[in-house]
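To: structure subgroup
Subject: Chain for Friday's discussion

All,

I'm putting the inputs and outputs inline so they're searchable in the archive.
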Amino acid sequence: MIVPNFNDLNNVNDCLGSVFSQSIPFDQVIFIDDASTDESVAFVQQVIENRPEVLFIANTVNKGTALSINQALKHCSCDYVLFLSANDFISPYLVERFHATIKEGAGFWSALCQNVSEDGTIFSPRKTPVIVSSPSFFSPSQTIELIRIYTNWSPGTTVLYHREKVIEHGGLSAPLKGLADWLLAIIIGVKSGVVFVPEILGTVRLHANSYLSFTLQNEVHLQSKIENYLRDQLALMPDLKSTEVDMIVGKVAGRLELNLIFGMIRYSGSTLTRLFRIFRFGYLLLRFALSSGFLRLIMAKYIWYMRIFNSVSH
């Protein structure tokens, strides 16, 4: 477990509480603070005082989440590693379910997530696709097909990455910021296959200034950066066909374009500009709806997930 932190005093207690309450404990816990200016460092040091299994790292200058995680990876020796934001938390059975369902050598393992309001009082669905009804391994070729149909089914809060494969691909790419973990999952999943568990084992705290929303609103030339990154990384896999590379890049770029325009609609000040972006968003959504996997995606997102969410005690 690697927990990067920057000024998350209000939420880090819930995060670490979930890390330390696992039915099967993590082999390693690395907490890395990225030059916080609040009291979170003092608080965490007090919490881990009698926990020798925890390695505490404090940056003297702010490096950003991706570079902090890459730094912590140098101290990690486990086969699989989870990057958990200090404002999110996980189910006490996540590690147990991982051990029960992992297939050796899989690029990553993931489960479902739910959302919680910033004050921690209201839980809501996080409707990522339920791609299968029981824990399953998907080969690299099957993973490519999953990308074609669903694009993204792995919320970062529950993803355990194969550590050596993460390091092999250079860790998280800092220029991609809040999207770096998703794109890394695509790369190592396509290369080595994935495991998916259709259970809600993570909770994402919603807040307006999240790292992902900041990335989508402020990153210049984000789409071209992502396309170049994916093509460069996929080019390292000689078994991939050029049509498969084009499909993966196209699906990710299309999904990102929808997210970018939706974010622009939310934060656009001009009525005329907002109307234009709404029209553009509608066109892209219609184009997506006409794709062959649309009905299956709707079923997976809104029906199967809600059955699971409604059965969970929050």
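Points worth raising on Friday:
The first strand starts at residue 2 and ends at 5.
The chain has a mean pLDDT of 88.

D.
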